[in-house]
């Protein structure tokens, strides 16, 4: 590198950022959105924020395994390191071609996220990242390497260092610094190190083999064995504390053949197909499950139509209520918890907020019921994709050992949407109709986010991935484990025609090097290295478009609602498929559901017919309804049942006294009083046709019905009361907001405005300016001038068109520097073009701390 090039090399991260173009800054802010929350005042503040511990940890957590390994290798390389040294730490002596191919893109990713800066011959890892990744006794390096010879001998006496040189066959030196350099030179010379270790006893080599891959620290006694003494005498092991020795980094790297990691992973693990089905089978299976999911949600909220379970004091459903819900839905409790949470996430279910707080359907549920089936499904599926509430953790314990309950607090997992989207994207990269091996999916996710946990069943991302596969199948996004066509449309993925994922498992662009044959399967590294970035937030228009495509693909696969049933002589009706809503609603009142499945069986009973009569239907209405909607003749037993119940319905009238029974047939009243089952109602005759009771009307109604009578309630005016199903609804409620995994990714408009503001602020803080007479100006400090000087300078700049550098304190007391071109000064205000804000603004003169002219070369 020439001397001119060395002169322009950045001396700090701020200078490196200053040299970036707007596109590179936009890529940085998009990858690390926490850096513009709030927008930095200039590039120096941006660099400072990029080096904070919280921000660096967050950036490291979002690196794939190989990019993280590149950062770890740079943390143990000499600082600054050149590109060749860093590549050697990754590729080793064998110069692994896969590592060589992936390395440029890993380094570019670290540069893009401002974790690495400097030219190729002076690469530097930001200080905080080096502190996190470099080895120390308290925090061992992920590479398993120990300190360098210089670091390990920093407290050693000069005489002892000279003794080590002599034992290692090196000439003594005049000072400790040159002695350490000589020993380091020996350990980094492969040929001389091979000769030295060739003379080592086998037992000593065995000691080194146990420490070479870490941890590099070991314990020794006050009188070490001969195999240890041989190593200690030659500096191959160095003491760090009484009874503790360490394998120097240079020695370990020689034994590792130059590799910083035992297992360098430049390529993502393949997502292995588990089984392959015809796409048509996958789509029809998923569509059937999608329809089942709609029926399940309807059944759940119909069961809670008159008010569901009460809300626990701490929030959520009780364990007993969840069990009852599971029994009602005929599913296991974890599955019931998933459906409850899904309805809540879609805004169909909420608490009513009343004194006796209960869960119930929201008004949005009634609107949802009116939508076509496919549109109802897309609303559920999109709510699931973006929800952070995670049903899989229900039943577990929080940090305070409290049980996590359905609909309760503490079950948001901010990583859930990203993991769901990524799992479905990986499925979309497989050949159409192929399902994925869960273990290979988990391994892939761990490669893409290497720092977020080890690959174990206890890791949250692993559990989220497995829950995603199960929930997507229950919801009908996948069928038989493979992504359906409507599921593919929902996430915005295109069909996978060539099935490259089955061969490479990358989920990225397919292909091999041009001209490669069957025996040469070296992947194209610039396509293979990086995993897909986290899903960027889609606009409302994009979400609506994806939902519309999914709706269009799913609608033809869903069964058409039927307008008829099949009546049978055993007082049952068979619905051979889903029924149209008016027919289903009426039949739910007139009959009881006996069994479900491909066909639903309804049974007519005296109680169910009375329920329809109580709802205001007459016997003639019921006969006409059944005749209209039955494909078979109405059986005679069913006609008799309706007529018999209708004849007795309302013959007895019950109203409020406390309660009374009225009937024109006094013989029937005599029968009631004589029946021993009526004793609990405490009836007494007030008149030949009237009985009084001490029970309330509702209890009296139920009591007489249990005795086989068919009483009807009446109003104070003597009219029969028609009891219709009461649908309890909550006040209008919004769906729960997802808990974001950090600041949201900025859109293009925000990025452009933020970059302009940062550039302008940097211009204000770095532009040279002339010193004022009152107080010499210096970069980074606000100018100070008197009010008269400020006004005079402003007025002069209006006439000359000069640009000024000012200090300004806003109404909140926040001070800033600005570069302005004054346009008008009057009434105690200056109107100027503000280069910092890139717009014309008006400032009160009394808030300007001082003013200075820009230097001649900048004016």
From TrEMBL:
<dbReference type="Pfam" id="PF13625">
    <property type="entry name" value="Helicase_C_3"/>
</dbReference>
<feature type="domain" description="Helicase XPB/Ssl2 N-terminal">
    <location>
        <begin position="565"/>
        <end position="687"/>
    </location>
</feature>
<dbReference type="Pfam" id="PF13280">
    <property type="entry name" value="WYL"/>
</dbReference>
<feature type="region of interest" description="Disordered">
    <location>
        <begin position="494"/>
        <end position="546"/>
    </location>
</feature>
<feature type="domain" description="WYL">
    <location>
        <begin position="789"/>
        <end position="851"/>
    </location>
</feature>
<dbReference type="InterPro" id="IPR032830">
    <property type="entry name" value="XPB/Ssl2_N"/>
</dbReference>
<feature type="region of interest" description="Disordered">
    <location>
        <begin position="761"/>
        <end position="784"/>
    </location>
</feature>
<protein>
    <recommendedName>
        <fullName>DNA-binding protein</fullName>
    </recommendedName>
</protein>
<feature type="compositionally biased region" description="Low complexity">
    <location>
        <begin position="504"/>
        <end position="515"/>
    </location>
</feature>
<dbReference type="InterPro" id="IPR026881">
    <property type="entry name" value="WYL_dom"/>
</dbReference>
């Amino acid at each position: 590198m020439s001397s001119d090039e060395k002169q322009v090399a950045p001396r700090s991260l701020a200078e490196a950022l200053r040299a970036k173009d707007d596109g590179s800054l936009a890529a940085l802010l998009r990858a690390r959105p926490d850096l513009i929350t709030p927008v930095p005042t200039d590039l120096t503040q941006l660099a400072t924020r990029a080096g904070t511990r919280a921000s660096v940890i967050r950036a490291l957590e979002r690196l794939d395994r190989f990019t993280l390994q590149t950062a770890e290798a740079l943390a143990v390389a000499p600082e600054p390191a050149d590109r060749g040294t860093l590549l050697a730490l990754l590729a080793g002596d064998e110069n692994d071609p896969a590592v060589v191919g992936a390395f440029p893109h890993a380094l570019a990713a670290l540069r893009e996220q401002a974790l690495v800066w400097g030219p190729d011959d002076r690469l530097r890892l930001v200080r905080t990242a080096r502190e996190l990744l470099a080895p120390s006794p308290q925090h061992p390096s992920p590479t398993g390497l120990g300190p360098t010879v210089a670091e390990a001998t920093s407290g050693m006496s000069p005489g002892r260092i000279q003794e080590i040189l002599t034992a290692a066959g090196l000439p003594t030196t005049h000072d400790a610094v040159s002695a350490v350099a000589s020993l380091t030179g020996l350990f980094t010379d492969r040929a001389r190190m091979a000769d030295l270790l060739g003379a080592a006893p086998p037992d000593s080599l065995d000691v080194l083999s146990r420490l070479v891959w870490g941890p590099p620290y070991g314990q020794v006694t006050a009188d070490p064995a001969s195999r240890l003494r041989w190593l200690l005498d030659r500096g191959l092991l160095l003491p760090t504390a009484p009874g503790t020795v360490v394998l120097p980094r240079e020695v370990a790297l020689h034994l590792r053949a130059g590799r910083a990691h035992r297992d360098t992973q430049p390529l993502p693990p393949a997502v292995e197909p588990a089984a392959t089905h015809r796409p048509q089978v996958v789509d029809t299976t998923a569509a059937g499950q999608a329809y089942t999911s709609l029926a399940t949600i309807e059944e759940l909220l119909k069961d809670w139509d008159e008010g569901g379970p009460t809300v626990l004091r701490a929030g959520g459903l009780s364990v007993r209520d969840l069990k009852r819900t599971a029994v009602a839905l005929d599913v296991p409790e974890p599955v019931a918890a998933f459906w409850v949470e899904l309805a809540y996430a879609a805004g169909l279910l909420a608490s009513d907020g009343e004194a006796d707080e209960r869960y119930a359907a929201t008004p949005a549920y009634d609107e949802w019921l009116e939508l076509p089936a496919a549109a109802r499904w897309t609303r559920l599926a999109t709510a699931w994709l973006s929800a952070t509430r995670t049903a899989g953790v229900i039943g577990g314990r929080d940090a305070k050992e409290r049980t996590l309950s359905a609909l309760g607090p503490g079950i948001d997992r901010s990583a859930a949407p990203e993991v769901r989207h990524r799992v479905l994207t990986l499925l979309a990269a497989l050949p159409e109709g192929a399902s994925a091996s869960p273990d290979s999916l988990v391994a892939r996710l761990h490669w893409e986010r290497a720092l977020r946990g080890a690959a174990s069943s206890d890791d949250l991302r692993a559990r989220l991935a497995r829950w995603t596969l199960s929930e997507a199948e229950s919801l009908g996004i996948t069928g038989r484990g493979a992504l359906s066509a409507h599921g593919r449309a929902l996430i915005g993925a295109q069909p996978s025609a060539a099935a490259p994922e089955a061969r490479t498992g990358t989920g990225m662009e397919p292909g091999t090097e041009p001209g490669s044959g069957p025996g040469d399967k070296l992947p194209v590294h610039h396509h293979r290295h990086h995993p897909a970035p986290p899903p960027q937030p889609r606009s409302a228009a994009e979400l609506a478009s994806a939902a519309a495509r999914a709706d269009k693909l799913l609608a033809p696969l869903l069964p058409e609602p039927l307008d008829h049933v099949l009546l049978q002589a055993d007082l049952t009706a068979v619905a051979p498929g889903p029924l149209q809503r008016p027919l289903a609603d009426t039949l739910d009142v007139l009959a009881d559901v006996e069994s479900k499945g491909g066909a639903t069986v309804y049974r007519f009973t005296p109680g169910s017919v009375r329920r329809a009569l109580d709802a205001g239907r007459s016997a003639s209405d019921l006969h006409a309804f059944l005749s209209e909607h039955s494909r078979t003749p109405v059986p005679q037993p069913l006609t008799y049942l309706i007529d018999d119940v209708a004849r007795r319905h309302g013959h007895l009238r019950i109203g409020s006294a406390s309660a009374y029974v009225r009937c024109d047939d006094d013989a029937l009243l005599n029968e009631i009083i004589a029946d021993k089952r009526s004793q609990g109602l405490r009836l007494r005759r007030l008149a030949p046709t009237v009985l009084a009771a001490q029970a309330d009307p509702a209890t009296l109604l139920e009591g007489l019905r249990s005795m086989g009578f068919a009483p009807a309630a009446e109003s104070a005016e003597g009219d029969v009361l028609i009891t219709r199903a009461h649908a309890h609804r909550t006040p209008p409620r919004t769906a729960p907001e997802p808990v974001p995994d950090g600041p949201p990714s900025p859109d293009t408009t925000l990025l452009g405005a933020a970059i302009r503001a940062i550039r302008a602020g940097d211009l204000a803080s770095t532009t040279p300016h002339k010193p004022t007479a009152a107080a010499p100006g210096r970069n980074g400090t606000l100018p100070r001038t008197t009010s008269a000087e400020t006004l005079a300078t402003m007025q002069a700049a209006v006439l000359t068109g000069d640009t000024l550098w000012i200090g300004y304190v806003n109404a909140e007391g926040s001070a800033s520097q600005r570069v302005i071109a004054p346009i008008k000064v009057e009434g105690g205000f200056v109107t100027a073009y503000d280069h910092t804000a890139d717009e014309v603004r008006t400032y009160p003169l009394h808030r300007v701390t001082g003013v200075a002219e820009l230097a001649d070369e900048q004016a």
